[in-house]
Structure formats: C-alpha cells, structure tokens
Amino acid sequence: MYGKAFAPEYQGALTTLSVNSSLTDVLAAGTEQLRAAERAGKPGEAARSGLAVAEAHRRLGRVEDAERAWKASYRAARQAADVAAMAWALWSGGTLARQRGAFRLARRLLQLAADLGERGGDIVVRGYSLAGLAETGRIQGDYEAVGRLHEQLLAEARRRGEARHTVWALEGIAQMHRNTGDYDTAYALFEESAEIAARADDRRGHAWALRGLADVVSVRDGDTERALELLSQAEVTCRAMRLSSALAYNHKMRGNVLYRAGRYAEARSLYEQALAEFREMSEPRGEALSRLGLTKSLARLGRDRAETAAELAELAGTLERIGLQHARRMVARAYDELGIPDAGAVEARPAEVTR
Questions:
Q1: Mean pLDDT per 10-residue interval, the chain, length 355 residues
Q2: What are the start-end ranges of the H helices in 201-304?
Q3: Which of 36, 96, 123, 343 maximizes the CB count within 10 A of its CB?
Q4: Is the pTM higher than 0.85?
Q5: CA 218 to CA 210: how far, in whole Å?
C-alpha cells in the first residue's frame, strides 16, 4: 500500500539523497550544490539546494544559519520566478518559526506557503504546509481547530500511499488522544505509525513513533523498563541521523518516564541534559517543558516549596507568552501534584505536549 519514504525537501541535484541521510551529509552536499548553482548563475537550482541547507541547519538546531538559508532560498526562487520553490522556502521558514516558538509568524508563513504551493501546482508543498499549520495548532493545544485537518491530511496521505505523511498524521492524532487521556487509541495509532515507518524505511518517523509508544507504555501501563527500552531504540536513530531536536525530546521523555517511576534523581539528570540541549538550539517549547520536569524533580528531592512555587509561576508566564495552552495546564497540574497553591490556577487536564 505504501511506497518507500522519500524526502521532497531534497530537490534539484539533491534528489538522490535519502530521507535517512545524515544531516551533516545533507548539509555538505547541499552547500556544495548551492555554491555551484550560484557560480553558474542558476537561481532556481540555488533555491532548491538552499532549501536542503536550510532544513539541515534547522534540524541540527542551528537556528540562525537556518534563518539565513531559507530567506536566501526564497530570494533565489523569486529571482527565478519559481513559485513552487518560493513556497518550499516559506514552508521551511514557517517550520523554523514554529520550532522557535514564534507561532503567529509560523502560521503566517505556512499559510503563504500553502497558497503559493496551490498557485504553483505543487500539491506536495501545499500538503506539507497545511500539515505544518495543523501541527502548529496541535502543539499549542488547539485540538478542536486542527483535529479535522489532521484527519483530512491523513486521508489524503493514505489515498496517495505516501508513507511519510501518513506516519506524521497518525502520530499527530495519536498525540492528541494521548493528551486527552485516551491511551488505548493513542497506543494503537502510534503502533500503526511505527509499523508503516518501518516498512517504508522512514527512520525519523519510526523514532518519533517509538517515543510515543514509550510515553503511553509508561503512563498507562507503568512499564518503566519497556518504555526506556523503546526510547533507547529511538535514540540510536536520532544519533545516527544527527536529529538534535528529536534527541533532546527523547531525553526529556526519558526524564518523564523516570519521574513517573519515582526515580527522581535520575529524572533530574535527564531533564538537565535535555534543558541544555534545547537551550543550545534555541527551542523555547522544549526548554520550558524540560524546566517543568526539572522543577518537579527538584521538589520531590526536597527543594524549598517557596522556590518551587516561584519557578512554577515563572514557567506559567513563559508558557502564556509562547502561547502553549496545553502546557500551561500542565503547570496547573504540577501545582496540584506538589500540593502548592496556584493563585492563577486554570482548569487542569491530562496533557503532555511533545513534537
């Protein structure tokens, strides 16, 4: 039903690259082709090579380099009057904006990308851009608004037999079910996405699916060792492909699993590691979630209650500014869990924002 996964963001002379290519290899090849295109005066090829450079930098956590690269790709595409390439550059910029916590900018760039993709006749970039809009809403916790879009994109991906996008949509829907407490449905969807990703040789998608399974196994079944084993399998892929962001989220999830098991000192070490990784790549969402886990671990290890309350209050403000509704409810749950009064309490619901 599904073909082998491919990476449509690797374009022009870079189409031979695999979805599983190491990001350092992608960056080296993309930079070489970009320079060659610039020397030859071929802005269209420069735009498409520059897209791969931008995406490699973004996934490696080099946000400033990624920012420069996607803008240069867009300028080259506009010079070449290549509407589809302009759309791809905007998609990359919107994805980077989401990664940096700039959700309003992310939505604007991704909507522009979707519109240009439709005008340029590139259904793939249109689909990727709509997926980006759906993921932005999901990360912010606006499930009602984006749930139907996830389902629509899943149906389209299944119809086309596009494994990578099917895996993405399944994982997004699974995450929403997990966050609202429907663990059985979440597990089934994560399991299906892992199977499709494995058959399609989508190692990145498979690693994210394993992480989702580990989360459910931990929170639903209390099976700490199996959850840690799943995360270890995913980490092998993250390291092999240099997936910096995915690796940091893997470490944060390992902290979550250990915290749920009452292994607070070990959890603290993992949260500290993840926090340093997120700060290095300027990813505020991951940083805030790691800080929350670290704060809870330190509280369990005897930290002063007043210091814990102050940290939670600061985190709540940070999450409000970023626009993470669901993560803010996680802070409210932390107050309740730790027995600390929350002057600005909001209704708490089961939550765990990830991707």
A1: 83 92 94 97 97 95 95 98 98 95 94 96 92 91 86 90 91 93 97 96 95 98 98 96 92 98 98 96 91 96 94 89 78 90 52 39
A2: 203-216, 224-241, 244-260, 264-280, 284-300
A3: 96
A4: yes
A5: 12
